[in-house]
Amino acid sequence: MSLLAIVLTETEELAPLLMPPLAFAGIAVAVFLTLGFITWSFRDVANRHSEKTGKADSHGAGH
What pTM was estimated for this model as a whole? Predict the structure, then answer.
Protein backbone atom coordinates (compact mmCIF):
# COMPACT_ATOMS: atom_id res chain seq x y z
CA MET A 1 0.00 0.00 0.00
CA SER A 2 1.09 3.51 -0.56
CA LEU A 3 1.62 5.93 2.25
CA LEU A 4 -1.33 8.06 1.07
CA ALA A 5 -3.75 5.11 1.25
CA ILE A 6 -2.60 4.24 4.75
CA VAL A 7 -3.03 7.84 5.94
CA LEU A 8 -6.52 8.15 4.40
CA THR A 9 -7.81 4.91 5.92
CA GLU A 10 -6.54 5.82 9.36
CA THR A 11 -8.09 9.30 9.42
CA GLU A 12 -11.51 8.40 8.05
CA GLU A 13 -14.34 8.74 10.55
CA LEU A 14 -17.91 7.55 10.13
CA ALA A 15 -20.67 10.11 10.39
CA PRO A 16 -22.99 9.54 13.35
CA LEU A 17 -26.55 8.51 12.57
CA LEU A 18 -29.53 10.46 13.89
CA MET A 19 -31.11 7.26 15.21
CA PRO A 20 -30.42 3.53 15.13
CA PRO A 21 -30.74 1.76 11.75
CA LEU A 22 -33.75 -0.25 12.92
CA ALA A 23 -35.60 3.00 13.62
CA PHE A 24 -35.17 4.02 9.96
CA ALA A 25 -36.60 0.63 8.93
CA GLY A 26 -39.51 1.03 11.35
CA ILE A 27 -40.39 4.43 9.93
CA ALA A 28 -40.27 3.04 6.38
CA VAL A 29 -42.54 0.12 7.34
CA ALA A 30 -45.01 2.49 9.02
CA VAL A 31 -45.11 4.77 5.95
CA PHE A 32 -45.66 1.87 3.55
CA LEU A 33 -48.38 0.35 5.76
CA THR A 34 -50.15 3.72 5.95
CA LEU A 35 -49.99 4.19 2.18
CA GLY A 36 -51.18 0.60 1.66
CA PHE A 37 -54.16 1.17 3.95
CA ILE A 38 -55.08 4.37 2.12
CA THR A 39 -54.88 2.56 -1.23
CA TRP A 40 -56.92 -0.36 0.14
CA SER A 41 -59.62 1.97 1.49
CA PHE A 42 -60.28 3.41 -2.00
CA ARG A 43 -60.82 0.01 -3.67
CA ASP A 44 -63.85 -0.30 -5.97
CA VAL A 45 -64.72 3.41 -5.76
CA ALA A 46 -65.06 3.70 -9.55
CA ASN A 47 -67.61 0.88 -9.64
CA ARG A 48 -69.71 2.44 -6.90
CA HIS A 49 -70.13 5.64 -8.89
CA SER A 50 -70.47 4.28 -12.42
CA GLU A 51 -73.78 6.12 -12.96
CA LYS A 52 -71.92 9.45 -12.79
CA THR A 53 -69.36 8.53 -15.46
CA GLY A 54 -71.93 7.67 -18.14
CA LYS A 55 -70.42 4.26 -18.77
CA ALA A 56 -73.32 2.30 -17.33
CA ASP A 57 -75.03 -0.03 -19.79
CA SER A 58 -78.48 1.32 -20.58
CA HIS A 59 -79.76 -1.86 -22.24
CA GLY A 60 -78.70 -4.22 -19.45
CA ALA A 61 -76.76 -6.63 -21.69
CA GLY A 62 -73.35 -7.86 -20.66
CA HIS A 63 -71.46 -7.39 -17.49
Answer: 0.54
